[in-house]
Design brief:
Length: about 290
């Protein structure tokens, strides 16, 4: 099922408007067949921008995108106001992807059933709930049997069963050679099967090594909650040391870090200019995060 077509970003930069700030700059990234890549970063750092470039829905301002595997994309917000029923839309797309109408209709039913949405098959897209239309968004991407799957917060709005099903489907596909790149606010999402995590920081991608990632679930984790000056993004050094970065209430951030690095992350927070205020430091046992 997998292909050898791999996508590569070479020195990619993107800014919006002639004098806009660079959202991304000098990004190099290669996505191999079967790779499962997580992209994380604080709000507004450019995660969706990067995913749209990977999906081919946007073009870089500078640099280039080489290779174009057959790509499917689940956007953060799916345009639900389409003149189709859920099953009609999926059947139509299946046909666009080269299936016969009969095979497309069968695939549409199968995916709707897998996501617990059979009851919505005849519902016009415009009348679907947020969760219902998200299920169709996910089904349309999987039905396309893509070589590259790009998922931007695809789990948001799905019920627990559908969230699990989507994790299963992505893990199955990547085991089968499909590459997948995803953004999700839940640090546990696909944590056990993710090959590489990149954090978008200052417009660039900071790599978190797979070995370190794999070593983390079995180890105690220190979670540092800290607050910076209003609107400030976490210092780059802190993001590089952290295993997970999540926004907390009131503009604070929660940084997960392996125990041996906890002193270094505190030093980086307190030594930032201007310094960050450390709200709390807690030790969690493996699996409790
Ligand atoms: N079409 C656009 N026109 C102008 N500015 C844009 C556009 N799309 C994104 N931006 C800006 O680019 C920056 C990065 O946005 P992007 O949506 O890629 O970030 P993100 O990391 O996905 O954010 P979030 O976590 O909030 O979804 C933001 O400052 C945003 O305002």
């Amino acid at each position: 099922m997998g292909s050898e077509v791999r996508i590569r970003l070479d020195g990619v930069g993107r800014r919006y408007g002639l004098r806009g700030r660079w959202v991304l700059r000098g990004v190099d990234l290669e996505v191999a067949p079967g790779a499962l890549i997580r992209i994380e970063g604080a709000n507004g750092t450019g995660k969706s921008t990067l995913l749209r470039l990977l999906a081919g829905l946007d073009a870089p301002t500078e640099g280039r995108v080489a290779g174009r595997p057959r790509t499917a994309f689940v956007p953060e917000r799916f345009p639900a106001a389409l003149p189709f029923t859920a099953a009609g839309y999926l059947t139509h797309l299946g046909a666009v992807h080269g299936l016969t109408r009969k095979a497309a209709a069968r695939a549409a039913d199968e995916w709707l059933e897998r996501f617990g949405a059979s009851g919505h098959a005849r519902t016009p897209m415009a009348e679907l709930s947020k969760g219902g239309s998200q299920k169709v968004a996910v089904a349309q991407a999987l039905l396309a049997a893509p070589e590259l799957l790009v998922l931007d917060e695809a789990w948001t709005g799905l019920d627990a069963a559908a969230r699990e099903e989507l994790e299963r489907a992505v893990a199955e596909r990547t085991a089968d050679g499909t590459a997948a790149v995803f953004v999700d606010h839940d640090p546990r999402r696909l944590a056990e099967v993710t090959d590489t995590t990149y954090t978008v920081v200052d417009g660039a991608l900071a790599l978190r090594a797979a070995a370190e990632e794999a070593a983390c679930p079995g180890r105690p984790r220190v979670v540092v909650e800290a607050r910076g000056p209003a609107g400030a993004e976490p210092p780059g050094e802190v993001v590089r040391l952290a295993v997970s970065v999540a926004e907390a209430e009131g503009g604070a951030y929660r940084f997960g870090v392996t125990e041996p690095r906890s002193d270094a992350i505190l030093r980086a927070l307190l030594g930032a200019r201007p310094p960050w205020h450390v709200v709390s430091v807690n030790l969690y046992e493996a699996g409790s995060l």
